[in-house]
Amino acid sequence: MKDFLTMLKRSPAAIIGISILLLWILIAIFGPSISPYTYTAMDMENQMTAPGQGGHLLGTDSLGRDVLTRIMYGSRTILTIALMTSLFSSIAGIIIGFSAGYFGGNIDTIFLRVMDIVMAIPPLVLSMVVLGILGDSSILSLTIIVSIAYTPATARVARGALLSCKGFEYVDAARIRGENHLYIMFVEILPNTIGPVLVEITARFAYSIMMIASLGFLGVGLQPPTPDWGMMVIENKSIIREAPWTVLYPSLAIASLVIAISLFSDFVNKVMVNDK
Amino acid sequence: MTNDFVLQIKNLSVSYRTLNDAVSAVRNINLNVGKKESLGIIGESGCGKSTLSYALMDYLPSNGSSTGEVLFRGENLLTKTQKEMMAFRGNRIAMVYQNPYSSLNPSLTIGYQLDEVTMFHRGYKAKKARKASVEALADLYIGDPAGVARRYPHQVSGGMQQRICIAMALLCRPDLIILDEPTTALDVTTEVVILDIIGELKEKYDMSMIYISHDIGVINKVSDRIAVMYRGEVVEVGDQRTIFKHPEHPYTRALINCMPRAGVVKEEVRLNTIPGYVARRSAADTGCPFVDRCEKRNADCEAKYGMIERASGHFAACDRAYAEDVPDRKRAALKIPKVGNGSAKEEILLEISDLYKYYGNQHRRVRALDGVSVSLEKNSVLGVVGESGCGKSTMGHTISGLMAPTKGKILFDGIDISISWKQRTPEVLRDIQLIFQNPGRSLNPSFTLEKIIGRPMKKLLGIQSREERKKRIVDILQKVDLGEEYLYRKATQLSGGEKQRAAVARAFSIAPDLIVCDEPTSALDVSVQASVLNLLGDLQNESGAAYIFISHDLNVINYISDYIMVMYLGRICEYGRKDEVVGPPYHPYTQALLSAVPDVDPSLIREPVRLEGSPPNPTRKITGCPFAGRCHRKIGPICDTTPPPKVQASDDHYIMCHLPLDQLGDAELDKPGNLTKTESLMKTVKA
Amino acid sequence: MQFLTWLIKRLGFVILTLVAMSMLIFLLVEVMPGDVAQTVLGQSATPESVAALRESMGLDDPLPVRYGRWAGGFIQGDLGESLYMRGVQINTIFWRKVGHSVILALTALLFYVPLSIFFGVLAGVKAGKLTDSIISFFGLATMALPEFVSGILLITLFSVKLSILPITSVIPIGQSLWGNLHILILPALSITFVMFGYVSRMQRSSMVTVMNSDYIRAATLKGMPRGYVIFRHALRNALLPTITIIGMNMGWLFGGLIVVETLFGFPGLGSLTLSAIKTRDIPLIEACVLFITAIFVFSTFLTDMLYVYLNPRIRFKGGDA
Fold it and tell me: Does A45 reside within a domain?
């Protein structure tokens, strides 16, 4: 932990990243309650007002809805889903990837082949098809589907992390002491893979944001009127010339969040993996 | 020419900036290398010997900086730009590295990598360059050099790769060649041949040489003069005989004394050790680098520190040196009963009969163990020796249960244990322990010693109370010279020697009957190796456990074992009491091994037996003697077609050889039929 | 000989993957809730007409029979008939759009492959220096940036502010893509952003690994000039992992195409897939997804071959001397 702080002091990019991330978390928690508007409130006198005018800090969209308020509400859903997705897919990935790598042999071969096949459908396409056909996406269905779509990738990372430890003799020592497989996998090996696993969780967090924003953009994410950053962009794309803020600010919100998490993830990688 | 020196190093210091401070890797080095002279630099890991060699080439990482002068034929290399250095590197000063495989580019052919040297430095055109490369390969006694030039590095063996690296270094006939541990990654019998070639070519091309190694025996063989390095400084320099016969610096003396060597056995001698470990040296530390570990230190150490000329050309950084040669400490207190002296036999603990272990599938079957039968008495040590790939580790792993053998029987105390850990009973798992080669890998880096040593107690002895376990752990930690304060340290916070002590503690914590030691000291520095060997000897004597001690180092095996078994390609060549195995009559392979082992006593250096080639492909089925392909005493076709008989030389001394016993003595082996040096070198290349 | 057996094995696996994929896609799409016949006829349809349509479409047949019919058609090049646009053979609209998408993908590849390799190598060679920090930061920032976000930023700059490129990438009626190549620029650049982040970071790290290897040190200490060491000794080895990464990410590229084509209104496979999903046009969805998968499988296969060709350690296995 001390190392962590000293390392943090030396890395301005990580400080920026973590600050932006914390800011977004604060906005997600407190933002909506301090906003004078609700995300559906339509200000009929102020449609497509430019930022700063008519009491709308970031302007309004074609229906007169406050862009800032919708962004603040949108941060709640996207952060929640992305966080759950990165956690669930990582946990599922660890269980599957660890089992495959640990038992090796035919189990591993089958795992690899199945993963090759499943990974042949890009995660975005897979989620899009399933969510699109199911219709009426909810936070729950988004979380489940995106987690499943990402699991092959996390499982591969977890398998790799396990394999890098499996050859160590402390695993052999545990075996000839008669430890069971679960003990070896999760008590002996897991603590030593914590670096790559944490890096994977944080990186997956960034990719989850990307995926959920993209699904919203494609119209198969959360359904209106729930505010969704990706959806805000596609809804207003046709008025980009007249009211560029309606698409620019949600885009910047996504960009800042994704970049902040990526910087954080890179820092975790530097601390946990590279400098070990 | 103002002087005869090819290289003069004056006050050379190298330091590295780290996050918190500056580390002094090399400091105040003053060394000269004369024309055609060979300077050996010896030191343990972390003493700065490799850093020194890169500093000579003016090649340091970006956080490193050097001061002082490196005069190569009068020109100071440290003031040259990287561009100017190009004219020296590979041309007038060449280098050979420890790991030949990683030093060759995997995606370029061997010929390409050789050709470019002369094309750049000599301006040769492709054809002429290739001709020079092929000649250089032929110089190294590589058969079919033109064919080898067309291959990629991964297609040739390790010994061959190192020859190629040496050929590459010699292409431009450099004035100075720097060899950084060139044989460390190779087997002893391969090492002998490479050392021979190096010596021969040095004469042929009038080169000067700097040879860097941690291995005192190797340095002894190749050097005219020797510099001893410790924590970044040269503490003693002098000619080879003086350094070995009359070392003046306490560190040199201690280093030489802690090596297990011919004639030194545990029954008579406790190896000398150097207490403590090599600490990192910050740029701010001054004074004698060895003072914290020195037995001879006194109040004057600080004031008097500095190089002193003890005799002409012999400098040492200490005047409290040994005036006379000090004998080894005799082991008086420990009286170890000689085993198996024809008297009543001890009870048999382990009996292995006809053990086979195959890897791979039916297309590519590696015969790691090819019919091994041996037995082990209670409270005795069986040393298993052989080169890499001889199956010695596989044997250890089948006994300890990491894997089940393909065929054959292992009886442990009457119980059949030719099964893997999955099927073994907790009692068997408890009674057989394994100590691994690399303690850094065998101790879980995430756990404290309490958990590492306590877990087997809980699991196999069933001690549920944590307090009870803690008490026992502290006891056992003290036995291995680690204090109570180590209880909550993690493995990553320990030095290499401490880690291996902890691993030994783990093995002994549950009072096993048999401990398989798989190269337990190979990853350690010699000074640390000595203390671990002493510890293993003491604990074995005290606990009455039996050992199967596996090592590639015949001196170590000879020190610790009661019985020795020599293995080659999965089979036993020779087995017997240790004094019988290391003395005549020998199996030809044992003799070759014995002669190849570098010794620290210059008077004991023998003319080594040079073996042809490298061990054959272990996937090939062998009908005759496994050693036939490389044997210098091969009789004829019978060696290839018929398995050698098990000839009984004495009560428990067996040799598997077609030759009659009376022809396996020292004199017979050294004389007729034995190839001359050059003949054997010529033959070594046959693929 | 060795290579031939490898090739046959690998090809076998390609076919196996495609078959497994087709089953998976078929199952995925067919078991989804919702009655196809009902969808086609609308909510007001009578149960009798729905049943009749089910009968005529063969929807009441067991799953394996339907899969067989579908896959059989596929093998013969018959992609079936669209559900949404009744009576339209998928073949008549599909391939033109695939062509557009392939051209867009190739344009994007043309942008990002040289860029990311160049900057990745540069960052790797200058590791720890300012150049490296800038390139690495940029790569990190774009690595997980959704394509539509970079697209919006590009549109704001080039279309709204500078007005030099169109906001949408629609092909005017009666014209072909070849006459309107400039509409490819912004979509391809949008994809370049995210791909650059990923590929350049990979290239950098493999370059750093190679530059720190023993054989690069050996080459330098043989007196070879730095530029020569980088180009002759380092580059080839450092490119190997990148080639794999580029091949493995072809799937991602096509996922990105869907987003980008939607943003720019580009008439390609991606926007076709999305509209198929939106209209629940089952046969069209199946055709689109299977095609995207096939592209992924074949590009992985091609990169594998390239990898083997460039890596002598695999090309010439074993052979002791």
Answer: no
Integer Cα distance of A230 and C149 in angstroms: 9
Interval B625-677: pLDDT, tens: 888 888 888 888 888 888 898 888 888 899 999 888 888 876 555 544 444 44
Is B277 a member of any domain?
no
Residue B680 lies in a domain: no
| pLDDT surpasses 50 at B340 | no
Cα A180 to Cα A183, A252, B422, B423, B444: the distances in Å are 5, 50, 9, 12, 16
CATH number, residue A144: 1.10.3720.10
The verdict on A173 touching B (C-beta cutoff 8 Å) is: yes
| Rounded distance between C-alpha atoms, residue B2 and residue B590, angstroms | 51
Whether B284 is covered by a domain: the verdict is no
- Report the alpha-carbon distance of residue C67 to residue C77 in Å, rounded: 15
B441 vs A169: CB contact, 8 Å cut-off? yes
Predicted confidence (pLDDT) per residue in B258-271, tens digit:
888 777 788 777 88
Please say whether the beta carbons of B468 and B476 come within 8 A.
no
β-strands B38-42, B208-213: how paired? Answer: parallel
Distance separating the N- and C-terminal Cα atoms of chain A? 14
Q: How far apart are CA B93 and CA B73, in angstroms?
A: 11
Number of separate domains in chain A: 1
CA atoms within 13 A on the CB side of A241: 7
- d(CA B409, CA A161) in angstroms, rounded, equals 37
Q: What pLDDT was estimated at residue B299?
A: 74
Residue A54 identity (one-letter amino acid): G
For C297, how many CA atoms within 13 A lie in the half-sphere containing its CB?
26
Domain range for residue A93?
11-35+55-274
CA A135 to chain centre: 22
Min Cα distance B485 → chain A (Å) is 22
**What's the burial of B667, exposed, middle or buried (CB within 10 Å: 0-12/13-18/19+)?**
exposed
Nearest C-alpha neighbor of B382 from the set B548, B143, B585, B557:
B548
Contact C146/A254, CB-based, under 8 Å? yes
Domain membership of residue B485 (yes or no) is yes
Q: How far is C122 from chain B (nearest CA, A)?
A: 17
Q: Pick from A176, A178, A188: which is nearest to B400 by CB?
A: A176
For each of the domains in chain C, give its residue range(s) and CATH number, in order of start: 34-78 (no CATH), 90-280 (1.10.3720.10)
Asked whether the beta carbons of residue B90 and residue C225 sit closer than 8 angstroms, the reply is no
Task: Write the residue in C21, C147, C149 that is nearest to A120 by C-beta.
Answer: C21
Burial of B305 (0-12, 13-18, 19+ CB in 10 A): middle
> What residues 171-230 of chain C have any CB closer than 8 A to a CB of chain A?
none
Of residues B223 and B322, more confidence is placed in: B223
pLDDT class of B277 with cuts at 50, 70, 90: confident
Interface confidence, given as ipTM, is 0.86
Q: Is the Cβ–Cβ distance between B132 and B77 less than 8 Å?
A: no
Which residue type is seen at C127?
A
pLDDT digit string, tens, across residues B198-216:
988 988 999 999 999 988 8
Percentage of residues in chain B having pLDDT higher than 70? 89
Contacts of C297 in chain A (CB under 8 A): 120
Contacts of A8 in chain B (CB under 8 A): none
B208-213 vs B176-180, strand pairing mode: parallel
What is the Cα–Cα distance from C291 to B476, expressed in whole angstroms? 66
Chains meeting B at 3+ CB pairs closer than 8 A? A, C
Q: What is the pLDDT of residue A168?
A: 92
Which residue of C259, C264, C282 is the best one to mutate when testing the A interface, meaning the one whose CB has the most A CBs within 10 A? C259
In a domain, residue A5? The reply is: no
Number of domains in chain B: 1
